Amino acid sequence: MNSSESEIIQFIDELIDRGERLAKIEHRAYDNPPDSSIVMIGGYPVYPASEDEYSQWDTDCRILLTMLGNAGKAFEDEFAGSTYENAKLYVSLAPKKLGNLRAIKEGLLRNRIKVTVEQQPRETAERGRITRSAHIVNVHNLYGGVQLDSPGANQHVRISFCQEVHAEVERLREAVRGSDLDEFDKGEIEHNLDRIKRVAEGEQSQKSRSSILEKLSVVEKMVTVSERLAKIVAPLILALRSHFG
User: Are residues 238 and 176 in the same domain?
Assistant: First the structure.
């Protein structure tokens, strides 16, 4: 198990702990007036936490799916819907989501769900070639295998590299948008993330890599004001930094 998977499992454990408390929703019938012939149908939910806590939990569950990459897409429907609002309709989504969280954790522990990172050899510094060790996720699934010495191999590796950087940036962006940071800080972080994407698309040099690492440090510092967000984005920042370090 790599460090990213360990971070994800730790995050899942936190989601399960919070979800177990949020799942304790009681439904109580409306009280009918003692001398009334009116029969009131239905009832109301009694929540163990505020609506804000349910909203944060739902958002964090969706962030987990982005951290899983393609593997998370299979669970998107299972984590759709507001746990708080659905309880009003006598549909308790919390136990269902808890079951899926446990299934994802079990899948990671048993290697049924795998966050795969493959490292390609460092290429020589030539015009149009990459001068770094490229960490590419599922590159064999994307292109049927890359032969570095074959014609066009560099272009395939380059596209894979950009796709992976973009995916990690977007996961980080979604985590920030769903956080409790103020809007100014969110805007500043998104500005830095946009810059990282643009620089990553260009020819890589020592200057461009240093620029990206500097902006990642800025992002990392800004998210530390939220302990919950910092834990979520730590593996994403680590993965991005590994591309350019």
Answer: yes
